[in-house]
Automatic annotation (TrEMBL):
<feature type="domain" description="PSP proline-rich">
    <location>
        <begin position="64"/>
        <end position="117"/>
    </location>
</feature>
<dbReference type="Pfam" id="PF04046">
    <property type="entry name" value="PSP"/>
</dbReference>
<protein>
    <recommendedName>
        <fullName>PSP proline-rich domain-containing protein</fullName>
    </recommendedName>
</protein>
<dbReference type="InterPro" id="IPR006568">
    <property type="entry name" value="PSP_pro-rich"/>
</dbReference>
<dbReference type="InterPro" id="IPR007180">
    <property type="entry name" value="DUF382"/>
</dbReference>
<dbReference type="GO" id="GO:0005634">
    <property type="term" value="C:nucleus"/>
</dbReference>
<dbReference type="Pfam" id="PF04037">
    <property type="entry name" value="DUF382"/>
</dbReference>
<feature type="region of interest" description="Disordered">
    <location>
        <begin position="1"/>
        <end position="24"/>
    </location>
</feature>
<dbReference type="InterPro" id="IPR052584">
    <property type="entry name" value="U2_snRNP_Complex_Component"/>
</dbReference>
Length: 169
């Protein structure tokens, strides 16, 4: 404010002279604070990898490497007001409309995977809805009841022919 008042009180000739021959060192800065800011407390910025395209706001994006679809963090459960062991609020809609098409192999408890032990199916608070079944009572999207045990082949016990190289005709 004081600087602006001082500039306003100058005449045009003084302003022009100041522009042509400026006086250096007019700013009152604590050089120790300035030194600490640049040398003591400075941190390296997060750089992009070679070949990455930079765009405005890239440094503020959320890193999603540690997040996986279908896994709810403690903070998200707290924000949604979900008690421990309760289903997510969107489970009923997923049971009605099906699993998300973007993640066809995603296992969602109550839809295509068994619900946790001690949980029950139903529509009261804390219950896991009704899983979608066909006219014969079989689940539509997967083993939601936990009764279908798929026999996965055990490749460790099969003999391996090491007499030929891979890819030989």
């Amino acid at each position: 404010q004081a600087y602006i008042e001082k500039e306003d009180s100058k005449k045009l000739k003084q302003k022009q002279r100041e522009r042509m021959q400026p006086k250096m060192g007019k700013m009152d800065i604590d050089y120790q604070v300035l030194h600490d800011a640049f040398f003591k407390y400075q941190t390296k910025p997060k750089l992009t990898s070679h070949g990455d395209l930079y765009y405005e706001g890239k440094e503020f994006e959320v890193k999603l490497r540690e997040m996986k679809p279908g896994m709810l963090s403690r903070e998200l459960k707290e924000a949604l007001g979900m008690p421990e062991g309760a289903p997510p609020p969107w489970l009923i809609n997923m049971q009605r409309y099906g699993p998300p098409p973007s993640y066809p192999s995603l296992k969602i408890p109550g839809l295509n995977a068994p619900i946790p032990l001690g949980a029950t199916f139903g529509y009261r608070p804390g219950e896991w809805g009704k899983p979608p079944v066909d006219e014969h009572g079989r689940p539509l999207y997967g083993d939601v009841f936990g009764i279908l045990q798929l026999d996965e082949p055990n490749y460790d016990e099969e003999p391996v022919d090491r007499s030929k190289h891979w890819g030989d005709l």
